[in-house]
Design brief:
The complex is a heterodimer of chains A (161) and B (310). Chain A is mainly alpha-helical and 161 residues long. Helix content of chain A is 71%, strand content 0%. Chain A has helices spanning 3-25, 28-44, 52-72, 82-87, 94-104, 108-118, 124-131, 135-152. In chain A, helix 1 (3-25) packs across helix 3 (52-72) and helix 2 crosses helix 3. Chain A starts with a helix and ends in a 9-residue tail after the last helix. Chain B is an alpha+beta fold and 310 residues long. Chain B has one domain (60-70, 94-310). In chain B, strands 3-4-5-6-11-10-9-8 form an eight-stranded antiparallel beta sheet. The N and C termini of chain B lie far apart (51 Å). The chains are: A mainly alpha (161), B alpha+beta (310). Chains A and B meet through helix 1, helix 2, helix 3, helix 5 and helix 6 of A and helix 1, helix 2, strand 1, strand 3 and strand 4 of B.
Chain lengths: 161, 310
């Protein structure tokens, strides 16, 4: 990959990598480490991407694989206190802070599926393929995540599917 | 506002602190060549292999009975907190399989796959299309035809079956429902985990021990006869002391007490049990309130009813 290609892609997707890794690990530090590792892989990639979607999907996939490998090395994992994770982000309103806190208090599998579905707007089948689980498992995770958030965020979280 | 819009509004404000600096990546690329580690390994591997070959028939080495035949070279990334620079520390570590003793097909298949996986996926790019979506390999990390072929060879060689499907197990109540009301003692919290169709399962948990405080653990149970590929870096095997212990439920387990990790494990009738306790004689500032000793590890073992796994 040329330098001219790398810098714009890295700038555009570093937050995507960070948010996926943050949902995976629940740790801002591990998420930043993952950004470094994934961007290094991007930098080392010799071929150009066919198009923007191609690049985005490649980066998301590499990030998820990187996170999975990270979880396998149990000694490298860090558990962050939920208060510290919440405090690390300055959100505009208390309502948003509470949403962030409750999302980050969900189990990892729920968080990751929710992020890929809501933020990256991937389909259930795409998420299932990326996470290497059955589509029904993704549906279950999304459903349970919504139920939990509905229970905890009664004022702002709607009862929708 | 819809949930999706609210969610996006929140997470759009979450940003990495990493600054993209081309020079950092150019420098890091040069630092990653691991050839020196491999040269160091060659000298020690022969001795370790010979020792292991002589001992596995009797399963007398404790934790060593689960170990890979050769030590493994890994690179641990360190990020400079002030500059963001990445450096990689080379380490040579012992890896263990969580599927059974080294002379079992489950262990050997796991080791063979892991070695292939690490070698094959290093510095290799894969298609952006998901391989075999929802098919035979969907429960495993198989990315292309070459990996699938090697995977099939290993499965056939060791006569193992594959995980077919996986379900979420949301927490303590679900684990008690699965394994019985006495499976986890009061105060032993099993959290979210997963279970395959064949009974192989895993979850994270913690418990509060009198005199020790809160200790985190990771539970893993691998059903015999199935390929499972979970491995664990244990640092150095020499750092662990092993002994047998009969738990309150009457099941005899092996206990391995190390500096920052300790293990409870047993070769049960239908599967292989392994609990990774994230604590040891030197403690772990992230995962525990303080160090544990032999009595502490035995108390943790007593907080499970492993007979429920039969």
């Amino acid at each position: 990959m040329t330098q001219a290609e790398f810098i714009p892609l890295a700038e555009r997707y570093k937050d995507t990598v960070y948010r996926i890794a943050l949902n995976y690990y629940g740790s801002p530090y591990d998420a930043d480490d993952t950004v470094q590792d994934v961007m290094l892989k991007l930098f080392q990639r010799e071929e150009s991407f066919a198009n923007e979607n191609h690049a985005r999907y490649w980066i998301i996939r590499v990030t998820i694989n990187q996170c999975k490998n990270g979880l396998r090395w149990a000694q490298l994992r860090r558990h962050e206190d939920l208060d510290a994770v919440t405090a690390a982000v300055e959100l505009q309103t208390p309502e948003q802070s509470e949403v962030y806190r409750q999302v980050m208090s969900l189990p990892e599998r729920y968080r990751t599926a929710l992020y890929l579905f809501y933020y990256e707007e991937l389909t259930v089948n795409e998420i299932a393929a990326l996470l290497q689980v059955k589509p029904s498992a993704v549906t279950t995770r999304l459903s349970r995540a919504r139920q939990k958030l509905k229970t905890k965020l009664t004022e702002v979280w709607n009862d929708e599917e | 506002m819809k949930n999706k819009e609210l969610y996006r509004e929140v997470f759009s404000q979450v940003h990495t602190s990493v600054q993209i600096n081309l020079e950092d990546f150019q420098m890091t690329k040069k630092q990653r060549t691991p050839t020196r580690v491999l040269a160091v390994l060659a000298a020690s591997a022969a001795l370790l292999t010979a020792m292991t070959a002589a001992a596995v028939a009797f399963n007398v080495f404790g934790l060593r009975d689960l170990a890979f035949p050769k030590k493994t070279a890994i690179q641990v990334p360190h990020v400079d907190g002030s500059t963001g620079d990445i450096s990689y520390e080379d380490r040579v570590v012992d890896m263990i399989s969580l599927q059974g003793y080294a002379n079992t097909p489950e262990n050997q298949a796991c080791v063979e796959w892991e070695n292939f996986y690490q070698e094959y996926t290093a510095d290799r790019r894969f298609s952006n299309d998901i391989y075999d979506e929802g098919g035979r390999y969907s429960m495993y990390s198989v990315y292309d035809d070459v990996m699938a072929e090697r995977f099939d060879e290993i499965v056939e060689k060791y006569g193992l079956k594959l995980h077919q499907s996986m379900e979420d197990v949301p927490g303590r109540e679900a684990w008690l429902e699965r394994f019985g009301p006495d499976f986890l003692a009061e105060g032993n919290m099993g959290y979210y985990g997963y279970a395959y169709d064949d009974g192989t399962c895993a979850f994270d948990g913690d418990l509060t021990l009198d005199g020790y405080g809160l200790v985190d653990y990771q539970f893993h149970y691998a059903r015999k006869g199935y390929l499972d590929t979970v491995v664990l870096n244990v640092g150095s095997l020499e750092d662990y002391q092993d002994w047998d212990y009969q738990t309150r439920c009457g099941v005899t387990v092996k206990l391995s007490l190390g500096p920052s990790r300790s293990f409870i494990w047993a070769d049960l009738e239908e599967g292989f049990l392994f609990v990774n306790v994230l604590d040891g004689t030197q403690g772990d500032e992230t995962f525990s309130d303080g160090p544990i000793d032999r009595a502490g590890l035995e108390a943790i073992a007593d907080s499970f009813d492993f007979s429920a796994l039969s």
